[in-house]
């Protein structure tokens, strides 16, 4: 960053004398080279900067605080969008019009007092003109300015109707994993290459869906399954991955944060194209949804947690503070976006409310709300929220702070004599994932209710879980508080399981015994055979069918398939 002396050295004497007047110092006669040293020394005198800052308007002090927060550098186009830029006046006009006495805007106020300077460089996603506060001044800014609020949003009255999402989306992701583990969801070639692994229509959660049944929300659930790598292709079907087990073992807070980050940093999930009020054309521009989301969330992170805020006021403050959050290059004419109602193109800063404003409302009221980052407030009769407040989880994620911790309950579940299992939702997702394999889900609110039945336990037995393992798990889940009646019943059910074996296999029938002997004599083929059931017949597991056909073809035997 350029230092103060170099910044002043680029000004003509007329501009240096204007700055000197603001700092209440008199410069000697001479040219720029003779004036820079005395002026810089006057600006760096003890308490000189504090006195000047006290003379600034409140808005100018707020902008100066923004420079402090951003390390002394801000994009020029952002400030120009907000304040209209700085008039470019020559030395004679500066001396004649004395613009420092009546600056056209807040940026000129800081500029003609020698607090900010033009330069060229790159900051954030912007390359071009920037404004800087020289390091010598930045280091001397008074401490109270460091904490001065420069982004303010009006508070709102406590809403008549409050809507809270909480962990609903996480619970719906959990229900989706359970459904995928228990069901058959073919992994088609199209889905393998698509951004969403399972279509909304195919993954129907029914009564298991905790949050609102909205297509965009369901689509986000599908996308998050993919982004979090919770699925893998197992023999042509989607199944929960090993990573899914690790994800389920996380604490509630870490699991929530993983979902939040997966959404925040998803380059292919573009809320702008989901806005029903807009039609985005594919030519001439390309949105970078991660940039817009991150910039918006950075601004949201400046809002106080747990306090009801006016949504309209936030949108207005966003326009004042970060009008370029979606388009950091400041080019508001290059994007081809139409109004869905009138079909007219929306161009320029005049369309900010229809594009940037509408997008910010959508993100707050839909994905960020679905994730549990905000709560929404409504009037009695309105379908649109007028207020929001950051949750503790949302504020922690936006600011990088630690979220509140939830302690594990000493006894996880209660198991009644009627085979009902009640388990709290907090910090038990992995235990509930295991419980889903041997009990039927009944419903949930603060706790989840399951029921052990002979059929549900039989299903777990067929999945390879033995009775002793089920008993040990239930004892561990309940703190060894399983009644004798339940234990005896489970053991009795287990005694009835497995007395008849049903197995899927392929019957291989040879035309005669020599052909079967030819097949069974080869070690590579004999290894594929499960049982010899007759001199001309054997069984082969279905999964080995492809290898069997290949080996037979190499022997010159071309089998006939009979369905």
Descriptive overview:
It contains 27 helices and 18 strands. β2 (117-123) and β3 form a beta hairpin. The chain has five domains: 4-146, no CATH class; 168-264, no CATH class; 271-399, Arc Repressor Mutant, subunit A (Orthogonal Bundle); 414-483, no CATH class; 505-554, Alpha-Beta Plaits (2-Layer Sandwich), CATH 3.30.70. The longest helix has 15 residues, at 168-182. The chain has a four-stranded antiparallel β-sheet. Strands 12-13-15-14 form a four-stranded antiparallel β-sheet, covered by helices on one side. The model has no long low-confidence stretch (mean pLDDT 89). It is of the alpha+beta class and 563 residues long.
Quick recap:
This protein has 563 residues and is of the alpha+beta class. Helices cover 44% and strands 14% of the residues.
Radius of gyration, rounded?
34 Å
**SS-derived structural category:** alpha+beta
Helix fraction by DSSP (H/I, runs of at least 4): 40-55%
Strand content: 5-15%
The number of helical runs is: 27
Number of strands: 18
Q: Could you give the distance between the termini?
A: 78 Å
> Which segments are poorly predicted (pLDDT under 50) over 5 or more consecutive residues?
none
How are strands sequenced across the largest beta sheet? 4-10-11-8
**Major sheet details:** 4 strands, antiparallel
Quickly count the domains: 5
Outline type: elongated
Q: Write down the overall mean pLDDT.
A: 89
């Amino acid at each position: 960053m350029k230092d103060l002396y170099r910044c002043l050295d680029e000004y003509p004497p007329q501009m240096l004398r204007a700055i000197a007047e603001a700092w209440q110092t008199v410069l000697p006669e001479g040219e720029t080279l003779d004036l820079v040293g005395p002026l810089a020394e006057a600006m760096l005198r003890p308490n000189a900067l504090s006195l000047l800052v006290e003379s600034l308007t409140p808005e100018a002090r707020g902008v100066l605080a923004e420079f402090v927060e951003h390390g002394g550098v801000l994009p020029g186009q952002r400030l120009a969008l907000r304040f209209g830029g700085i008039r470019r006046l020559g030395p004679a006009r500066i001396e004649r019009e004395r613009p420092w006495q009546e600056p056209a805007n807040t940026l000129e106020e800081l500029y003609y007092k020698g607090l900010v300077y033009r330069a060229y460089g790159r900051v954030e996603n912007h390359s071009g003109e920037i404004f800087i506060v020289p390091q010598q001044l930045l280091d001397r800014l008074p401490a109270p300015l460091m904490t001065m609020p420069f982004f303010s949003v009006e508070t709102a009255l406590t809403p008549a109707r409050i809507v809270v999402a909480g962990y609903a989306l996480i619970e719906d992701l959990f229900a989706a994993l359970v459904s995928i583990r228990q069901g058959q969801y073919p992994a088609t070639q199209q889905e393998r290459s698509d951004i969403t692994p399972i279509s909304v229509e195919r993954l129907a959660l029914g009564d298991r869906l905790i949050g609102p049944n909205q297509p965009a929300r369901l689509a986000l659930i599908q996308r998050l399954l993919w982004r979090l790598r919770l699925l893998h292709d197992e023999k042509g079907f989607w199944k929960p991955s090993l990573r899914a087990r690790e994800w389920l073992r996380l604490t509630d807070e870490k699991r929530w944060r993983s979902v939040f980050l997966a959404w925040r940093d998803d380059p292919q999930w573009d809320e702008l194209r989901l806005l029903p009020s807009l039609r985005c054309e594919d030519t001439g521009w390309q949105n970078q949804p991660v940039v817009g989301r991150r910039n918006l969330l950075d601004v949201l992170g400046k809002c106080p947690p747990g306090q009801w805020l006016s949504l309209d006021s936030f949108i207005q403050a966003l326009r004042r503070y970060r009008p370029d959050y979606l388009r950091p290059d400041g080019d508001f004419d290059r994007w081809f976006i139409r109004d869905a109602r009138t079909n007219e193109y929306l161009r320029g800063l005049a369309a900010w409310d229809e594009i940037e404003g509408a997008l910010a409302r959508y993100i707050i009221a839909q994905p960020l709300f679905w994730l549990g980052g905000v709560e929404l407030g409504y009037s009695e009769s309105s379908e649109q929220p007028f207020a929001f407040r950051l949750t503790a989880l949302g504020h922690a994620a936006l600011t990088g702070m630690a979220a509140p911790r939830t302690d594990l309950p000493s006894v996880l579940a209660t198991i009644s004599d009627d085979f009902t299992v009640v388990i709290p939702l907090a910090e038990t997702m992995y235990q509930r994932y295991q419980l889903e394999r041997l009990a039927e889900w009944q419903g949930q609110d603060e706790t989840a209710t399951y029921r052990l039945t002979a059929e549900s336990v039989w299903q777990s037995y067929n999945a390879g879980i033995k009775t002793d393992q089920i008993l040990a798990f239930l004892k561990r889940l309940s703190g060894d508080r399983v009644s004798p009646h339940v234990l005896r019943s489970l053991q009795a059910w287990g005694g009835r399981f497995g007395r008849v074996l049903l197995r899927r296999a392929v019957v291989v029938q040879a035309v005669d015994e020599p052909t079967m002997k030819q097949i069974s004599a080869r070690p590579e083929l004999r290894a594929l055979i499960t049982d010899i059931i007759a001199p001309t017949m054997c069984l082969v597991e279905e999964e080995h069918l492809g290898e069997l056909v290949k080996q037979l073809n190499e022997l010159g035997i071309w089998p006939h398939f009979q369905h």
